[in-house]
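User: My collaborator and I are trying to settle a disagreement about how two of our proteins should look. Neither of us wants to argue from intuition anymore, so we agreed to look at predicted structures for both before our next call. Could you fold the first one, then the second, and keep them clearly separated?

Assistant: That sounds like a sensible way to settle it. I'll keep them separate. The first protein:
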Amino acid sequence: MSARLTALNLLLRTVGRPLLKRTKTPERARRDFDLAARWIFLGPRTNASRRVIAGVPVLDVRPPSASGDAVLLYFHGGGYITGNAASHLPMVGSIAGKAGLRAVLPDYGLAPERPFPAAFEDALATWNGLRNEGTDARRIVLGGDSAGGGLALALLAHLLAAGERPAGLFAFSPWTDLTLGGETLRTNARSDLILPVERIEELRTMVAPQADLADPRLSPLFAGFEGAPPVYLQASRTEILLDDTLRIERRLRNAGVDTQVDLWPDAPHVWQLFRSWIPEADEALDRTAEFVRRCLKVSIPQA
């Protein structure tokens, strides 16, 4: 573990997690997250424009290295109540630049104002919009982190059932089971560096107040993935959502899916956001970009 990660872990444990534990409203959570994103989440200079795809506002990111027709469709994390395309632009812009492709980041509907299935419907609408613009399904890679990782997996299962197959999918610490059946919600409750497990049932109620929590559009752990493209997952061994990654890995493998999981021994939930601050984040994004290039069969972009 790098000295920088050690320092970050101390800061998150002593400041970040206590702050999340006492945050009273989604509005306050959004303000705090946006402030952190503005000052902490660093990224390369990236050409990004706002537009609307099938009624969903998106950031369309075109790094200088982007070439060809490939697209990364990326869903931001934030527990379905916070986060946005702009907050995740530095990290996603870095992946897109390293992989040499364009990225689209939807601002999908957030709870509690727009509870389930709003996020899923916006994700599907964005996919359909890209397809209607002429983008080949085989040239789209899905990605996401935390709730957005679960959303990407839910979309993948839906697309497979409809006869469409993206090029691949990656997810960072995806939230895949809103029934909260993962054992690490308990065993990693003390070791998680940022997420207070005491708030997760309250969060779930805001996200899906009247839903079947095993609905595969909400909890992709219960979805079918036969015929899926390659999937790459990253997670930390110390986070409460570790089992959400390990159990979706098993489900994917049981469906015959080419699945790879990289586990970091002591990193915060979605540490990849801290690119340029900690070397572990840069390494994780390098591995992700390599996976994306492999799915699309493209070479490393020239500097």
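The second protein, kept apart from the first:
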Amino acid sequence: MRSATDRVMGTVVSLAAPDATDPARFQAAATAVFAHLRQVDQVFSPFRPDSPISRIRDGHLPLADLAGHPDGERIREVLDLCERFRLESDGAFDAWAVGDPPHFDPCGAVKGWATERASALALAHGLPRHILNAGGDVRLHGGHDPAPWRVGITDPHHPGTLLTVLHLRDGAVATSGTAERGAHVFDPRTARPATGLAQVTVTGPELTLADGYATAALAMTSGPRGPAAAHAWLTGLAHDTGYQALTVDPRGATWHTPGLADLLTAAATRTPTCARG
């Protein structure tokens, strides 16, 4: 497997393609992918005090001024995506009420959106079969090869081991959980951290949506119904959109939507192409 890795957007991002891929073509694709993600980070990072997102948060960049801003179109696209997630999750995902105390932070939507666009760049640079992994959120393209990719899902209670393996030829896998960063996702409706589930994994056609759905489902678990609320929402989501989900609770019990069964295999039987930590 030919691969390239960079650290960007606060995480490790890797691009991989078959060994037979032309080296110059692969390098050009990798350069474009990482440059795109670095540019996204400059615009959307809430940790850069001079980024447009930080300036919106701090009141120095009114939304009314986005029409004339050089990054205004992209920012509006992400804000529209955040509003979609807010509406579809009944407020569990709300970029304008993140954390304690609540503040503006669209990061829950940015990584999936940016990685989806970066994967499209890899396609445009001549990589019909590739896998792009941004901190465990994965976008896959199968190209002309009918063989599926194998994506390992890490067990949040046993670091370094796999819970299961998903077989996907094309699509996306996104995971939100507490294993790496603790209870960092808040439900703005309760103002409490989400601890009802240890991990939520969502898979479907686009990483843009899978990433936001995983975050929204995790946030829902802080309410009185806990994981039951997330499971009911994910079941409806699978029925309506085809996006499937797998969850792990704080004691290690797993649950998944019915449609995920065809994609699952026992982790011990396969070597994964990549794993979610």
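Some points you might bring to the call about the second protein. The helical segments are 23-44, 52-57, 72-88, 107-124, 207-219, 227-241. The domain at 2-276 is CATH 3.10.520.10 (T-fold).
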